[in-house]
Write a structure and sequence with these properties.
Elements lengths: L4 H19 E4 L4 E4 L17 H9 L4 H73 L5 H6 L15 H5 L4 H17 L14 H23 L4 H11 L4 H15 L13 H62 L8 H6 L2 E10 L2 E2 L21 E2 L1 E9 L1 H6 L9 E10 L11 E6 L5 E7 L7 E6 L12 E5 L2 E7 L8
Antiparallel strand pairs: 1-2, 3-6, 4-10, 5-7, 6-7, 7-12, 8-9, 9-10, 11-12
Helix pairs in contact: 6-7, 7-10, 8-10, 9-10
Pfam family, one: CactinC_cactus
InterPro entries: Cactin_C (IPR019134), Cactin_central (IPR018816)
Family: Belongs to the CACTIN family.
Length: about 500
């Protein structure tokens, strides 16, 4: 039971709404409101519908046509229902858009939170790629791309020479070239993940990226040759056209061919009418430029590798000398009955306190004397050239008793030459079984000497002026003379003299 007037009003309105819904319904076909066919006053379906006569009479008294009024009301109801339907569809559409926006916002928040993790995961996969590559190279299981990567992996101590892409790609079939192309793309993706801990101006991410881009150009050109259906005669003509061209000449040809293929003013005489030939030529020019650039980069990296090996060798020699000297000093103490902490008189007089030592670039190259210049039998076939080198001069001073008396740290003594490090590069020796040699001759001035390095074809002799003093020949004193990985290393220090009473 309803207890108050509000409940009765609600009940009355609900009853009225139900009665109207029974009487009127929306016709889906005509979109008009029609009297409900379900409403019957009795069980007899043929009985006429109910007509509100008093309402009709009242409307006629007011001068209103009942049928028109009913039609107007139906039109208003139809418009209201259509408007309600549109509002409902609009609400559903807005709700769907809001839910989609919420989902996208949640996805963006999740991506922002996990961005660091995704970056770390990608970096981890890249670092593991280089670890696996190093293991394959070390275990002699290197793939084709690993064989190329050896030239740019300065973090590994490897025996590599100058990279020649013509030799690397020679004999590869289409399947191997396709696999190599995919591996090169993978290397380009992983370049950003390589450790930059030991980078410098010579070996860094930019150099590694340029290296692999040049490799990609060479591999792509070779793939196009094999899979593109090029005519063998066209390929031969292109090779003959480009053989022996320098980098500058190739770049000039590249610009000319590009302009001609674009239909510029340079092709007034129709020199570039054979589009197929010049397209192949342009691809070959770019590949040849990339191959020459790879040779330059590999030579630079080979010199940097030798420098790093030299520094590492210095550290190893220093550690070895330190151990040997400690053992020697301990033995002398035991023989002489000296206790720990006691200093001998000779050591005190020698003043063997270390001063400041440093290494500087050394390029005091001199002309080989005419009497030593030879006419080589391979001059006709190979162009003689001087080898590249990276030399260091070791200078410094010691705080001897004399220097301690006459100098101090604010006014240090003059530095003197204490040794040299010669690194001469012979990557393209015709006979690699013959080891390069050196000879030392007295110069006209007694204070200096001429050291001359002799190799073989196609390298000429090269000579430098050095200080004329006796050498230390013990490896414990820093002496090294070896030829490995196409690099001749000659390191030596001069003998030191101490005054003893």
């Amino acid at each position: 039971m309803y207890s108050n007037s509000e409940d009765r009003s609600i009940r009355k309105n609900e009853g009225r709404r139900r009665r109207e819904e029974k009487y009127y319904e929306l016709d889906e076909d005509t979109e008009s409101v029609q009297p409900s066919q379900k409403r019957t006053r009795s069980s007899n379906q043929d009985e006429a519908p109910f007509v509100w006569r008093k309402k009709a009479d009242l409307l006629r008294k007011k001068g209103i046509d009942p049928e028109r009024e009913e039609a107007r009301q139906r039109a208003e109801l139809r418009a209201e229902l259509a408007s309600a339907k549109k509002r409902r569809e609009q609400r559903e559409r807005e709700r769907a858009e809001w839910e989609a926006a919420q989902i996208e916002s949640a996805r963006e928040r999740e991506a922002l939170l996990n961005e660091g993790w995704h970056r770390q995961e990608a970096s981890f996969h890249g670092s593991q790629h280089f670890v696996r590559q190093a293991i394959r190279i070390r275990d002699r299981r290197a793939s084709d791309v690993d064989w190329i990567a050896r030239h740019v992996r300065l973090d590994l101590r490897l025996n590599v020479g100058v990279l020649d892409m013509e030799e690397v790609l020679k004999g590869m079939n289409a399947h191997k070239l396709q696999g190599l192309a995919e591996s090169v793309e993978e290397e380009l993706d992983y370049v950003v993940d390589f450790s930059t801990e030991n980078d410098n101006g010579v070996w860094n991410r930019k150099v590694r990226l340029e290296f692999w881009k040049c490799v990609r150009v060479c591999v792509k050109e070779r793939v196009d040759r094999i899979t593109g259906g090029m005519n063998d005669s066209v390929i031969k003509d292109v090779d003959d056209l480009l053989r022996g061209k320098s980098m500058a000449k190739l770049r000039e040809m590249e610009n000319e061919v590009e302009s001609g293929l674009k239909g510029g003013d340079d092709d007034e005489d129709g020199a570039f009418g054979e589009v197929d030939f010049w397209s192949v030529a342009l691809s070959g020019i770019r590949a040849r430029i990339a191959a020459l650039r790879l040779k330059e980069l590999s030579e630079i990296l080979m010199m940097e590798r030798a420098e790093r090996d030299a520094q590492q060798g210095d550290e190893e020699d220093a550690n070895e000398r330190g151990v040997d000297e400690e053992e020697g000093e301990e033995g002398e103490r035991r023989k002489g009955g000296m206790r720990d902490g006691e200093v001998g008189r000779d050591d005190e007089e020698a003043g063997a306190l270390l001063g400041e030592d440093e290494e500087e670039n050394f390029a005091d190259e001199v002309e080989v004397p005419r009497r030593e210049v030879k006419q080589y039998a391979w001059n006709d076939k190979y162009r003689p050239r001087k080898p590249k080198y990276m030399n260091k001069v070791h200078t410094g001073y010691k705080w001897s008793k004399y220097n301690r008396t006459h100098y101090d740290h604010d006014n240090p003594p003059p530095k003197t030459v204490q040794g040299y490090k010669f690194n001469i590069f012979y990557p393209d020796l015709m006979d690699a079984s013959k080891t390069p040699k050196f000879s030392v001759t007295q110069s006209d001035k007694g204070e200096s000497a001429i050291i001359t390095f002799h190799a073989g074809a196609p390298y000429e002799d090269i000579a430098f002026r050095i200080v004329n003093r006796r050498w230390e020949r013990s490896h414990r004193r820093g002496y090294r003379c070896c030829f490995d990985r196409g690099v001749l290393q000659l390191w030596f220090n001069f003998e030191r003299y101490f005054y003893k009473r």
